[in-house]
Specification:
Elements: H1 19-30, H2 36-41, H3 50-62, H4 73-79, E1 83-84, E2 114-119, H5 130-143, E3 149-152, E4 161-166, E5 182-186, E6 202-205, E7 210-211, E8 219-220, H6 221-233, H7 258-267, H8 273-285
Helix pairs in contact: 5-6
Length: 287
């Protein structure tokens, strides 16, 4: 059953109360729009108070909506749009000034330019190895604009990034919510991750219906995989709606924006020519 925040098609504003207000507050808490102090001060989570109003304004600013603090029809529609489960902001952080959006770095970075990955499992939604080939294409998208190299490993070998399709509470502290809303999430590279051993891991919600087209109510896997790998490489969400690292899913998009490219190159600057030469020599003669 598809998850929804709103049970009523109306606006919500300061002074309102009810279960929908709890849903809105939980949604904004999880995405970083309220500080820890504001969350602790919410003695009545069903009440639309001043702190929640400020969180709504932040959300509206981040998503290019009119910052009224009222959860109107347009704001409801964006909140209900399927999206990535990674928070938009660090708790209580202010979003970028509208019109001045730029890439946002997590602070995490892989120490080497050769990053390994491994598939833990796949999804029954796609035949054969289709989902694995799609994710390999997603790695290629990031490799095309950087000097990063991605190597797939199998069996008992360790890997930097583990990829899996899971449902519900899958043991990482960020349970999936069933069909709708959160499609996937990924953890930042070291040292930015919630607990050791999970850096870079990328999880797709297998309660969604994945496809290679994104048609007929399905979710286009390549679009989501490119986005999530951006997190696994060190990028946070941006408020630039033209970027692949924008948090909401709006149908198939397989192209990095200028914001994405600038961000990933900030984390992983181009390798000097002499290092490329040494790497090539090592590949040719060192194995």
């Amino acid at each position: 059953m598809k998850q929804t925040i709103f049970s009523e098609e109306r606006s919500f504003q300061s002074g309102d109360e009810g279960e929908t207000i709890v849903n809105v507050r939980t949604f904004l808490d999880r995405l970083g729009y309220m500080s820890l102090a504001q969350m602790a001060a919410a003695t009545d989570r069903a009440a639309f108070d001043a702190d929640l109003e400020q969180a709504v304004i932040k959300y509206q600013r981040f998503h290019g909506l009119e910052p009224t603090g009222i959860v109107d029809e347009q704001t409801r529609r964006v909140m209900e749009t399927p999206r990535c489960g990674v928070a938009d902001l660090l708790m209580g952080q202010e979003p970028h000034t509208p019109g001045l959006a730029e890439y946002v770095l997590s602070g995490g970075k892989w120490p080497l330019y050769n990053i390994t990955y491994k598939f833990v499992n796949g999804t029954a939604d796609l035949a054969g190895d289709t989902e694995r080939n799609i994710v390999r294409q997603a790695f290629d998208v990031w490799a095309a604009v950087t000097d990063l190299e991605f190597t797939e490993v199998t069996g008992s070998s360790d890997a930097d990034i583990l990829l899996s399709w899971v449902t519900g509470d899958h043991g990482d502290g960020s349970p999936f919510d069933g069909p709708g809303h959160v499609l996937a999430h990924a953890f930042f590279p070291p040292p930015i991750n919630p607990h050791p051993g999970i850096a870079g891991d990328t999880h797709f919600d297998d309660a969604e219906t994945w496809s290679d087209t994104g048609t007929g109510g399905t979710i286009d896997l390549l679009s989501v995989a490119i986005h999530e790998l951006g997190h696994a490489l060190g990028l946070r969400h941006t408020s630039d709606s033209n970027a692949i690292m924008y948090p909401t899913y709006r149908g198939p998009n397989h192209t990095l924006g200028s914001d994405d490219i600038a961000g990933i190159r900030k984390i992983y600057p181009p390798v000097p020519w002499w290092r490329r030469l040494l790497r090539w020599i090592w590949k040719l003669f060192g194995r």
